[in-house]
Each structure stands twice: as C-alpha cells, then as structure tokens.
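[Meeting: bench + compute handoff]

Bench side (C.D.) handed over the final construct sequence. Compute side (W.E.) agreed to return the predicted structure before the next meeting so the bench team could plan truncations. Sequence as handed over:
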Amino acid sequence: MQNNFKNKLMKTARKNNTRLIFNLDMSAEIDFLNFNKTEKAKVEKLKNNSLQILDEISCYLAAVKINRPFTDAAGLKFIKNLKKFNLPLIADFKLADIDNTNKWIAKHAFNAGFDAVIAHAFTGEDSIAAVVDVAKEKNKGVILVVNMSHPGSMEFITPDSDAMCKLAKKLDVCGVVAPATRPEEIFRVREIVGNEILILSPGVGAQGGKSGGAVKAGADFEMVGRSIYKSENPGVSAEKIWGELRFD
C-alpha cells in the first residue's frame, strides 16, 4: 500500500545518496492574538530562512519533515513553495484524534502538497484506518508513531510499542517512527514490522542520538533538525551528517 510515497522517498534517497531527513521544525515565537507588523515580520523571516536553508542543504536530503508549529506560523499555503526542491514532504502533525477528525486533517495536509502524514498509533485501528483510507484515495503515505524519542515516552508508549508495530503491519502503512535516542528498541520494531515498512528515527543531535546509530540498528532514515538549522552554517552541518548517512 502507499507505494507512491515510498517509491518517491527511496528514489530521492538513492539520487542524493542519503538516509538523512531534515526536520524543518523552525518556528518563530509569534503572537497570533496580536498579529501586528512585528509578528508579520517574524513570519516572513521564518519563511525566508526556511527557503534559504533548503537551498543550501537539499542536495543532502531524502525528504523534509515539517511540524505543526511551522505550518501554524507560515500557513499551509506556504508548503507549495517547498515543492520546488523536489523532495518528499512529510506532515508531522502526529494525528491523534477520532477517525473523522483525523480524516479531515489528513485530507487538508495532502491537499496542501504533503506526500505523507505522521499519525499516532495509540489512538487505535479505526482512527488510523481513516487516515489510511484518505491516503489511498490521494495516493499518499501514512507513517505511524510506534515510539518516541523523549524520555517520557518510556512511561506509556514503549510498553505498548509491540502492539502498535503489529497495527502498522496490519494496516500496511508505508513507515513507522522509532527513536534514535534508544537504538536498541529499533531492533524490536524491525523484527515486528519486517522489511517492507520503512523505519524513520528522530532524536539525532540535540536530543542525544548519535548520527548513524539508528541506521546501524535497522532504521532506514534518521531525522535531524536543530543540529542543522540552529548551526552557524547549516550547509556544512548537513554535509557532515550526510557523510555519516550515505545510502550506499
């Protein structure tokens, strides 16, 4: 299922010889209740900075993941401006609601130009199936969070990770999210989901995950944000990480 997104991602990964996905999670501190000239200037700066960084680093990337705070600030219409980089775009909206709400958020994300959407698996089969149905209709992808990279995820998410991996396999999603901060847990995820489902691993760099560690543990891609966009030279930083995450 959802081979269009997976094929696009793998094609780009091979072309750029990379397993690096960039987390475009930059967001200005914007006061939406007092949207004056100063706040508007912050939004424009955010948009311009994101385009400038992608100009520098797109050749090192397999895809771009964009989170909800960014689209809240820049607007969903801005996503069309990122299409010029010819990279798969992943909506990191972590859908976690009832089936009807999940369906509509996914539909808006796909209509805005995203190639895949990230959803939480813990909401259960009906909620996720609604997202999968929309993805099939739009020929897009669904990526399920079966574990997270922060310490708190070990309280409630990690204990049920196996069940969520089995759900991902049952619904035949194109990918799952598993933590680069705890690469030992990636082995188990791969064991359950098999080789057809991609594993994307966040938490490299600022959260403590070591570049290349998740891939060695069985992940297909590592996701990096702050270590690139907060560096003095994003291009140099991305190239360094790319050197450790080549596809071949």
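W.E. noted at the follow-up: The chain has one domain: 3-28+37-244. C.D. will use this when planning the next construct.
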